[in-house]
Amino acid sequence: MSSTTVVVTGLGATSPLGGDVTSTWAAMLAGRSGVRALTEEWAADLPARIAATVAVEPTEVLDRVKARRMDRSGQFALIAALEAWSDAGLADEAPDLDRVGVAIASGIGGIQTLLANYDLLLEKGPRRVSPLTIPMLMPNSPAANVSLALGARAGVHTPVSACASGNEAIAHGVDMIRLGRADVVVVGGTEAAVLRFPMAAFGQMMALSRRNDEPEQASRPWDVDRDGFVLGEGGAVLVLESAEHARGRGARIYAEVAGAGVTADAHDIAQPEPEGRGAARAMQLALTESDLSARDIAHINAHATSTPQGDIAECIAIGKALGGETDHVVVTSTKSMTGHLLGGAGALESMATILALHHRTVPPTINLDNPDPEVDLDIAIKQRDLPPGDIAALNNSFGFGGHNVAIAFRSA
Amino acid sequence: MASTEEIRSGLADIVNEVAGIPADDVQLDKSFTDDLDVDSLSMVEVVVAAEEKFGVKIPDDEVKNLKTVGDAVAYIENAQGS
Predict the structure, then answer these.
(1) pLDDT by residue (tens digit) across A356-396?
(2) What is the per-residue pLDDT for A402?
(3) Which chain A residues touch B51 with a CB distance below 8 Å?
(4) Nearest-by-CA chain A residue for B38
(5) Is the pLDDT of residue A2 over 80?
(6) Fewer CB within 10 Å, N- or C-terminus of chain A?
(7) A352 near A25, Cβ under 8 Å?
(8) pLDDT at A17 over 50
(9) What is the DSSP string of A84-135?
């Protein structure tokens, strides 16, 4: 791997906690839950009737005609990308767009569009299926729409690896810059699957929390009473840039993306490998690629989705990856507040990791009333400060299929 | 049966919904693609919505001949009459 340094110069998000980065971050630090009861009629007979829906409807933000040509997942991605692009200062001084790439992930793709048009097909026949269905439902649609909106003309990609997709997009963006294929890559992830069908399907996997009467307490990573994840929706985007390009234009640098580790469990299509070997190896590879040691890691934003098995497997993996040197590491799961954004999770949590390094403070893990006795990590149950000086952090994302992606960030 | 102006006005509402063009700009001499920002996929949406609104069938082979709003209005008027 070449020595090209990759930095983060822009952030964007629309999440269950806020319609932008500032409001999302403030809510995270305040320990607010974005989970609500689904009172809609379509949810009435579902086993899990809670979800973390976005705080600001995308149609309140986007031009109506643009919005109707995009799946909800594409709308989230575009909103986050436009914010990140402006935040990076690129809206005012466009770079060489032939050297700007996009890598925006999705776990499931445009499922709202697919389902709505399948209903139209059954109810009203083929003539009523929208001609926009395919460009809206294809999983690369959010990435393509971001490319269209920004004029980005280097490679445009959509990694698909379930709940690891967002982190995989970040890893891909880093590779593009290090391979010299782009100077700037707009990376991130998005998901919009709070719908009857996917919620029924995840429910049948016994994957979702059924704490229907206490939505705000339902996502409780590492707590003894955790009973599954809470589905979330939203999107987050980072602007990655070679350090040389960023410095050349005097850009503000939030953090460095030091490296990535990507592995597979090859164990089971849905269950995590219980000893966390693949996850540990992903973290170790990220450290190696980043030239970091366990002592450098001050913070980990864990995947920790609030499932009985996954949360513990990750604890074991973190212990393994850091060779037992975890006393100095402040660990948190922002999913306790945002729910699980599937393909959007890695990007939103990387945003939180970057801001934790930038502001030297870690958002809390809420609802951790009674930690599982198997947890031997320092979990932030309140907002916690990080030390000054050169520090680094990891963000983990793992996905159905056995995908493990860890991203290492270094303070700027 | 709808009058020419009723058909134009109905089409204008559809074009406004699909492409965001102000309904008053959707006049008989306007080209869907050149003047009204209706691309080929949006044109399919316009046609299907017009079929439902005016109770006519517009075969896929005909769509390429409907270059202007006037072409579409004339086709719908004829189809309603037959």
Answers:
(1) 999 999 999 999 999 999 999 999 999 999 999 999 999 99
(2) 97
(3) 127
(4) A65
(5) no
(6) N
(7) yes
(8) yes
(9) HHHHTTTTTS---GGGEEEEEEESS-SHHHHHHHHHHHHHH-GGGS-TTHHH
- For domain A7-248, the CATH class is alpha beta
pLDDT one-digit tens code per residue, B55-70: 999 999 999 999 999 9
How confident is the model at residue A130, as a pLDDT?
A: 97
Active site residue A328: no
How far apart, in Å, are the Cα atoms of A248 and each of A178, A184, A336? 17, 13, 39
**Cβ-Cβ contacts under 8 Å, A128 against chain B:** 48
Nearest chain A CA: its distance from B71 CA (Å): 22
Token readout for A219 is 């996502």
- Tell me the nearest-neighbour CA distance from B74 into chain A, angstroms: 22
- Facing A131 at nearest CB: one of B20, B44, B51: B44
Examine domains A7-248 and A258-411 and report if their fold is the same.
Answer: yes
Confidence of residue B75 (pLDDT cuts 50, 70, 90): very high
The answer, for B48 touching chain A at a CB cutoff of 8 Å, is yes
Residue B41: how many other CB atoms lie within 10 Å? 15
Both tokens of A181, joined, read 């294929």
The catalytic position among A163, A299, A358, A403 is A163
The ipTM estimated for the assembled molecules is 0.92
**A303 noted as active-site residue:** yes
Hey, which CATH number is domain A258-411, 3.90.1800.10, 3.30.420.40, 3.40.47.10, 3.40.50.1820?
3.40.47.10
Å between B57 CA and nearest CA of chain A = 11
